[in-house]
Design a protein that fits this description.
Elements (H helix, E strand, L loop, with lengths): L7 E6 L5 H9 L4 E7 L3 H11 L2 E3 L10 E4 L6 H11 L4 E4 L7 H14 L2 E4 L7 H11 L6 E9 L4 H6 L12 H4 L2 H11 L2 E9 L9 E8 L4 E7 L8 E8 L2 E6 L5 E7 L18 H10 L9 H17 L2
Parallel strand pairs: 1-2, 1-4, 2-3, 4-5, 5-6, 7-10
Antiparallel strand pairs: 7-11, 8-9, 9-10, 11-12, 12-13
Length: 326
């Protein structure tokens, strides 16, 4: 039996914007600690080191002896950095932030080489661990909603000029991928998690702010399980994030989740089912899924992570939406 008291040491590869969410999530678990903070900018690594007690470094290969490497670098670098850690270090477990890759081709190469190295890939899909999303998944699987007819998912966020200026890779085709990858990817995965594979897709995007990738995108999806869904994503909301919501219209009920990260229930009218007491508060837009993910890592519940088929379906869909539909 696994001894949950065994401390696991973690290295953060990349100490930028998303690293704060990982630090908060890791610090919640007494069996996890950040041992190394790595960034090409030593000042960022040192800032994380001062906060966590980790050893700072600029060398991503100077990490032997840790149990988990969390890859938090720019999106377009995720495949390269994940593969290099798998092949050139003795770190057995690799957490990789979303998206795992920009293209399906890169993803398949990543799978092949990580498998060949014998390492374990742990992709970040935190919206799966949202308690309201998990409750919806269970309700759908048990037939509590009957046939789902229509789904609306809106990710209407703000990313101001400073967001792009402070991190120059933001807004680039090679490193960012656009709003579907960088902001909406977890909601793409959530829709696939809830409703299964997509049968048909069409969509339209725009890049009116002059970046290389879409800053706004709307898509129409038909799932093999029947529902028709719309997914609307933008980073152009005025001043601050405007809305995040999921609406489900089904045979046995209507549901409306909202809040910073689908943490609130705006409407719940389901046959023979009371509104669940699962709402939670947030101080940021990322949800609490990272906390749950790191708990699964501490407890070695590897089966709680998505499989390769699910990951590939999501990357293929995002690549189609972002680059295949014009």
């Amino acid at each position: 039996m696994h001894d949950s008291c065994i401390m696991k040491n973690i290295v953060l590869i990349g100490c930028g914007r998303i690293s704060n969410r990982h630090i908060e999530a890791i610090e919640e678990h007494p069996d996890l600690q950040i041992a190394v903070a790595c960034d090409k900018d030593i000042s960022k690594a040192k800032a994380v080191a001062e906060r966590t007690g980790a050893r700072p470094t600029t060398d991503m290969f100077d990490i032997d002896g840790v149990d988990i490497a969390s890859v938090l670098t720019p999106s377009g670098m995720h495949p390269r950095h994940t593969i290099e850690i798998a092949e050139k270090t003795n770190v057995p477990n690799i957490v990789t932030e979303k998206p795992l890759s920009i293209t399906e081709r890169e993803l398949l190469e990543l799978f092949r080489r990580v498998d060949a190295s014998g390492k374990r890939l742990l992709p970040v899909f935190q919206n799966r661990y949202n308690p309201l999303v998990q409750h919806l998944k269970s309700t759908i699987q048990k037939g509590g909603l009957g046939q789902v007819y229509s789904v609306i998912c809106n990710v209407l966020w703000n990313r101001n000029t400073a967001y792009f200026a402070d991190y120059p890779w933001h807004g680039t085709r090679e490193m960012d991928g656009g709003v579907v990858y960088t902001q909406a990817s977890h909601y793409v995965d959530m829709l696939l998690f809830l409703f299964g594979p997509v049968q048909d897709v069409c969509g339209m995007g725009s890049a009116m702010r002059g970046y290389e990738v879409y800053d706004t995108h709307s898509s129409l999806l038909r799932f093999k399980s029947g529902p028709i869904a719309t997914l609307n994503a933008t980073v152009n909301a005025y001043e601050k994030n405007f809305n995040t919501e999921l609406i489900i219209i089904a045979e046995k009920g209507n549901i409306h989740l909202s809040g910073t990260n689908l943490n609130a229930i705006s409407a719940w009218n389901v046959k023979d089912m009371d509104k669940p007491n699962l709402e939670f508060s947030l101080t940021h837009e990322y949800g609490k899924g990272h906390n749950t993910m790191y708990r699964y890592i501490a407890e070695e519940k590897w089966e709680m992570f998505p499989n390769k088929k699910e990951i590939q379906e999501g990357i293929r869909l995002m690549e189609n939406l972002s680059y295949g539909i014009r």
